[in-house]
Amino acid sequence: MSQVFDIDSVVLDIEGTTSATGFVVDVLYPYSRSRFGALLAERGGDPEVVRAVAQVRELIAEPDADDARVEKALNAWLDEDRKATPLKTLQGLIWSEGFARGDLVSHFYDDVLPALRAWHAAGVRLHVYSSGSVAAQRAWFRSSPEGDLLPLVEGLYDTENAGPKQEADSYRTIATALGLAATPERVLFLSDRPGELDAARAAGWHTVGVRRPGEPYYEQGVGDHAQAGAFDEITIMRSTA
Ligand SMILES: CSCCC(=O)C(=O)COP(=O)(O)O
Ligand SMILES: [Mg+2]
């Protein structure tokens, strides 16, 4: 069904929305799993790694956990697809290098890039809000099958700079960063997860639940949110352009 919105900014979820969860789980997750040990051993002194390891130790309530225990916790979170912030930070470091090296190329559903280009050309501001870290998001858009898409995207938000994706305050933080705190109804959030859509709506945003067959949340649906099976079902007008 076609959906029409009068908004200024679109905020995009990645996994399940712009891109296949299967690709993330089958390609990116194994890539990070096989490299956590080396990252902890060889770059354990890097400030970002130090910070993430401290967060892992806090989450597992083991202040003295050694590298092997930290790696075990990271792999357990991978197995259950738990989107823990330090896991995402460390994955982001590993994936960024993999994308830069040419080992990895990101994935987008066929309907996504034409829509993003059309919206961008029409003056719609595009942003990302994903559990994947900002570093991972940057690499993901830079290394797409159609080249560098980063120029299309203005703001990148994750669970560190915005907060948890199922809390309304995180969406208020993003709206403030976009200069739209007073007019949150000028923002449209696209996601596959009902809990994220609920939180965005609680912050005053428009929402569309993107439902793609085969994605984990497809059967569950998106409750009473507007829904679309692909981005070409979403039309954006800008009355204030
Ligand atoms: C480039 S981000 C990689 C995907 C990922 O790790 C992730 O957790 C995405 O979650 P999302 O919030 O986009 O559903
Ligand atoms: Mg998602």
From TrEMBL:
Q: Kindly tell me the pathway this chain contributes to.
A: Amino-acid biosynthesis; L-methionine biosynthesis via salvage pathway; L-methionine from S-methyl-5-thio-alpha-D-ribose 1-phosphate: step 4/6; Amino-acid biosynthesis; L-methionine biosynthesis via salvage pathway; L-methionine from S-methyl-5-thio-alpha-D-ribose 1-phosphate: step 3/6
Write out the GO MF terms.
2,3-diketo-5-methylthiopentyl-1-phosphate enolase activity; 2-hydroxy-3-keto-5-methylthiopentenyl-1-phosphate phosphatase activity; acireductone synthase activity; magnesium ion binding
Q: How is the cofactor bound?
A: Binds 1 Mg(2+) ion per subunit.
Which cofactor names does the annotation list?
Mg(2+)
Q: Share an example GO biological-process annotation for this protein.
A: L-methionine salvage from methylthioadenosine
The EC number(s) attached to this protein equal 3.1.3.77
Q: Does the keyword Phosphoprotein apply?
A: no
For this protein, the record's CDD domains field holds: HAD_EP
Q: Which Gene3D superfamilies does this entry report, sorted A to Z?
A: 1.10.720.60, HAD superfamily/HAD-like (3.40.50.1000)
Query: Which reaction(s) are listed as its catalytic activity?
Result: 5-methylsulfanyl-2,3-dioxopentyl phosphate + H2O = 1,2-dihydroxy-5-(methylsulfanyl)pent-1-en-3-one + phosphate
The reply on keyword Disulfide bond is no
Which InterPro entries does this UniProt record tie to the protein? Enolase-ppase_E1 (IPR023943), HAD-like_sf (IPR036412), HAD_sf (IPR023214)
Q: Report which residue ranges the record marks as coiled coil.
A: none
* Keyword line: Amino-acid biosynthesis, Hydrolase, Magnesium, Metal-binding, Methionine biosynthesis
Oligomeric form and interacting partners: Monomer.
Tell me, in a sentence or two, what this protein's role is.
Bifunctional enzyme that catalyzes the enolization of 2,3-diketo-5-methylthiopentyl-1-phosphate (DK-MTP-1-P) into the intermediate 2-hydroxy-3-keto-5-methylthiopentenyl-1-phosphate (HK-MTPenyl-1-P), which is then dephosphorylated to form the acireductone 1,2-dihydroxy-3-keto-5-methylthiopentene (DHK-MTPene).
| NCBIfam families, per database record | enolase-ppase
Q: Family membership, please give it.
A: Belongs to the HAD-like hydrolase superfamily. MasA/MtnC family.
- This chain's protein is named Enolase-phosphatase E1
Species, as recorded:
Streptomyces phaeolivaceus
